[in-house]
Amino acid sequence: MQKLLRPAATLAMMMTAVTLTGLTVTGCNKTAPHQSRHVMVFIDMSLSTLPDRENYKKYIEKIVYKLKESDRLTMCKIIDLTIADFTPIYDLTFPSFSMWSDNRTQYDKSMRDITHGLIATVDSVLNSRFKVQKNEIVNSFLICDQIKNGKPGRKSLVIISDMQESSSEFDFDKDHLTPVYLDNAIAILRSKNRIPKLEGVEVWMAGAYAKDTEKFFAVQEFWKRYVAATGAQLRSYSHTLLDFE
Description:
CATH class: Alpha Beta
Oligomer: single chain
Largest sheet: 6 strands, mixed
Mean pLDDT: 85
Low-confidence stretches: 1-31
Number of helices: 6
Radius of gyration: 25 Å
Distance between the termini: 64 Å
Strand order of the largest sheet: 3-2-1-4-5-6
CATH topology: Rossmann fold
């Protein structure tokens, strides 16, 4: 006959089971470590964007305050020679924090100083009046490919522009963007190897503007097709910066 367990032994077994269950649940619910992220921001410096520059500053601040330790931020200009005259406005990897060797108060102060310096630099650039008539937005994707290709971690691309491509091939503000035009535009870029492979990259487009609703949606359709052709994921296309995370 099976022996009956004493109350004390039964209680001990129950406590052991609860403890093991708790350890299992705790192990499953551990917070995942922060995955480093590289955010590239391209800012349109053409004269057509002057009326919207104050909003651009707000978008950039929103991006900066989302960044965490070990994240990298590269800020660049969209100009008439975006790729031929490429020089980053800012390229910085935020310092990592070690709970064993770093002082939290000093680290937080250092992060604030970096952030304030970064925003001040961007403000200075946006307050300038470059005599840029055209903007090669497409070429910012090529730069993104060159810098991020093969790098680990999460990758984000933010284009802050009215999204009116104005280059040697296209002038969205003046051209009539019919479905045939859009097909031809993508075909031309493909033939010139100007559609990079950006699988895994998340794309936000903020500042989008057009003179009328029909043109707005036509330009949006081009960028949807272009981003899809690169293999990247278009997270948002809007006049403002939506849901950046």
